[in-house]
Specification:
The complex is a heterodimer of chains A (501) and B (146).
Chain A: H1 10-81, H2 84-107, H3 112-140, H4 144-153, H5 156-295, H6 302-341, E1 346-349, H7 351-361, H8 363-368, E2 371-375, E3 382-385, H9 386-402, E4 410-419, E5 422-428, H10 460-470, E6 474-479, E7 485-492
Parallel strand pairs in A: 2-4
Antiparallel strand pairs in A: 1-3, 4-5, 5-7, 6-7
Helix pairs in contact in A: 1-2, 1-3, 1-5, 2-3, 3-4, 3-5, 5-6, 7-9, 9-10
Chain B: E1 8-12, H1 16-28, E2 35-38, H2 41-50, E3 61-65, H3 74-82, E4 93-97, H4 102-111, E5 115-118, H5 123-139
Parallel strand pairs in B: 1-2, 1-3, 3-4, 4-5
Helix pairs in contact in B: 1-5
The chains are: A alpha+beta (501), B alpha/beta (146).
Chain lengths: 501, 146
């Protein structure tokens, strides 16, 4: 026999399972890496924005300082030279101061320390602007000397120094912030790189695993395909071989049953024969005892009387009934064995007509038992062995009329239909039913189910099953106790000799 | 019945019990012919063909033959008896056996068996069959051995 394994051997199966587990882990890790990368990118963007913001602040501080210095330069030039060129330069640069301060305050609104510094700077600018406006007005009015004198004593120089000093402090603070933020950004960049590297490594591993897995499965598939092909190619052969094996085994069993039952008959003939002889011999003995009782009672012992009148007939009676039973059992086996040896001759049969014949033949039994047999037409035509089918159906119908439920008139329906190329013939009754526990058992030889109130040896259904198998079919029963039974005979629609088991 | 020589009955039957029952029932049918009983094929063949008082050398006989023997098959004995040139070729052979196989029955008739009887298991039928066989034996004519 060729045995083909379509499943993986267990060790390879384990490897494949590990591979799948690793791959799953790899995918989970990849997903985690992707999430991490996304998060890092968002953080990085935040840090970059912060750095840009710091640069903006520095830029704004520098601009403010330059504007302050330029406007001061323009004012001093105007005071010294009195040229209107300086006045326009002053107007241009000093006009930018207020927006610049506002811008700076806006940029540093998130930083309380810078805000505090601006709070100190702003009043100084107000004072400075008042001094400057005074100088400009005096020069414009031609009072240059007065403007110069006032300039020499006013507080604009220390005011500007104070502003300068604080702006430098602000710039220094921003430089410090820039350093912190740059470092933070560099750290996230490094983190990004390592996570990305890790992800790449993971991707590589998962890819390798996937390739391994695919290769393994492909190899398995190829192996399965090859073994399937081999299986297909040798299927016919195997079926033929199996069939031959089966029919050999079947023949063997039938031969065995035949020989055994046959050889059992031989000693049984003796047992029954000599029991009959014994019974015959007991008759004159009993007569002798009777005569002795009448003519010479004193020679008759109680033992002899008992032996002749009770013990002997009783013993012979038991031997008789037992041997008769044994004879019936042996005959049943013999019948089954002989049935197995009978040549099967498939022919066209109309089951409905066959059932009519069967019911006609047993009409008196059916009537005696108060049952009605109904045949549902039409029934599918079938090609099978007539005698075997007749025996099966007649056994089933006979059983259906036999095991009625007391107080319920028997109603038996015989019907048939086709199912996936096979003919199902059903014998449905409303009798006492069969306990589901016994559904298999009732088909076994010498086994019966339920109350043993009907004569029988437990042979009929065994015979039916043997015949069904012989016809390449099966038989089963569906029933609940007390609620009738349905026997379903499943036969090939068109039986060939190869179907015969 | 033959007037000058009584027909001997040769019974070849390995089962002592069967032999006894057969003999009893033949006697009950009123047949008083001599019955020689053999339980194996070898001694039976020896008696049939070689014994001084055996059927081949003296006197007509008829043979009751069982097919299941310990040392040889009953059909072999039948073949020997009915073989071309055998002195017992015309001697009637009644095959009395438990086998009711169709093939076996056909084979025995092909070999020249005269009657084939299956031993009924039921004793009443068995006794009945043997008694009828006895009646049959009392009316048939048996040829002389050659």
């Amino acid at each position: 026999m060729v045995r083909v394994r379509l499943k993986l051997p267990s060790s390879e199966g384990r490897v494949a399972r590990w591979l799948v587990a690793f791959m799953t882990l790899g995918f989970i890790a990849l997903a985690a890496a992707a999430i991490a990368i996304g998060w890092i990118t968002v953080r990085n963007r935040t840090y970059t924005a912060e750095i840009l913001h710091t640069q903006d602040v520095r830029q704004a501080i520098a601009t403010l300082q330059i504007q302050m210095e330029q406007s001061e330069t323009a004012r001093r030039g105007y005071i010294l030279a009195g040229k209107p060129l300086f006045a326009t330069a002053y107007a241009r640069t000093a006009g930018n101061l207020v927006p610049s301060i506002r811008k700076l305050r806006h940029l540093t609104r998130d930083n309380p320390r810078q805000g505090a510094r601006l709070d100190l700077i702003e009043p100084r600018f107000v004072q400075l602007r008042a001094l400057r406006t005074q100088s400009m007005t005096l020069v414009a009015a031609g009072r240059i000397a007065e403007a110069q004198r006032r300039f020499a004593v006013d507080a604009s120089v220390p005011l500007m120094r104070g502003i300068r000093y604080r702006l430098q402090a602000m710039a220094a603070d921003e430089v410090r912030l820039l350093a912190i933020r740059t470092e933070r950004q560099e750290r996230t960049s490094a983190l990004f790189l390592s996570v990305a590297g890790l992800a790449a490594a993971l991707l590589l591993i998962v890819a390798i695993l996937a390739v391994l897995l695919i290769r393994r499965y492909t190899a398995d598939l190829a192996a399965s395909r090859d073994s399937l092909r081999t299986l297909n190619e040798t299927l016919e052969e195997q079926v033929a071989e199996r069939t031959a094996d089966l029919s050999r085994a079947n023949e063997e069993i039938q031969r065995f049953a035949y020989i055994v039952s046959h050889d059992l008959r031989s000693p049984l003939v003796n047992v029954m024969g000599f029991t009959a002889e014994l019974a015959a011999a007991a008759v004159p003995l009993a007569e002798l005892v009777d005569r002795a009782e009448a003519e010479a009672p004193h020679i008759l012992t109680e033992d002899a009387r008992l032996a002749a009148r009770e013990d002997l007939p009783e013993a012979i009676g038991f031997i008789r009934t037992s041997t008769q039973k044994m004879d019936r059992l042996i005959n049943a086996i013999l019948k089954l064995a002989r049935e197995g040896r009978r040549t099967i001759a498939p022919e066209h049969i109309d089951p409905a007509q066959l059932v009519d014949t069967i019911v006609g033949a047993m009409q008196h039994i059916v009537d005696d038992r108060g049952a009605v047999v109904r045949v549902e037409r039409p029934m599918p035509a079938i090609v099978t062995d007539r005698l075997a089918l007749e025996q099966i159906l007649s056994n089933l119908i006979e059983n259906a009329t036999k095991y009625l439920k007391p107080g319920r008139p028997g109603e038996i329906t015989v019907k048939g239909h086709t199912e996936r190329g096979r003919v199902i013939l059903s014998v449905v009754d409303n009798g006492r039913g069969i306990d589901p526990r016994d559904h298999q058992r009732v088909f076994d030889l010498f086994r019966r189910s339920g109350a043993q109130d009907q004569p029988g040896e437990g042979i009929g259904l065994a015979h039916v099953r043997a015949l069904a198998y012989r016809l390449g079919g099966t038989i089963d029963v569906q029933s609940t106790l007390g609620d009738g039974a349905t026997f379903r005979l499943n036969l090939p629609t068109h039986m060939t000799i190869q179907d015969a088991a | 019945m033959n007037d000058h020589k009584t027909v001997g009955i040769v019974m070849i039957e390995d089962d002592e019990g069967h032999a006894r029952l057969i003999e009893k029932n033949i006697r009950r049918a009123g047949i008083l012919n001599d019955i020689r009983h053999f339980t194996d094929g070898t001694t039976a063949l020896d008696f049939l063909f070689n014994a001084a008082d055996g059927p081949a050398k003296s006197g007509p006989a008829m043979i009751l033959l069982d097919l299941n023997l310990p040392d040889m098959s009953g059909t072999d004995i039948l073949a020997r008896i009915k073989a071309e040139g055998s002195p017992l070729k015309r001697t009637p052979v009644v095959v009395l056996t438990t086998t009711d196989d169709k093939v076996e029955i056909e084979r025995c008739y092909d070999l020249g068996c005269n009657v084939y009887i299956t031993k009924p298991v039921n004793y009443e039928s068995f006794a009945q069959a043997i008694r009828q066989l006895g009646l049959f034996l009392s009316v048939i004519q048996v040829p002389e051995a050659e």
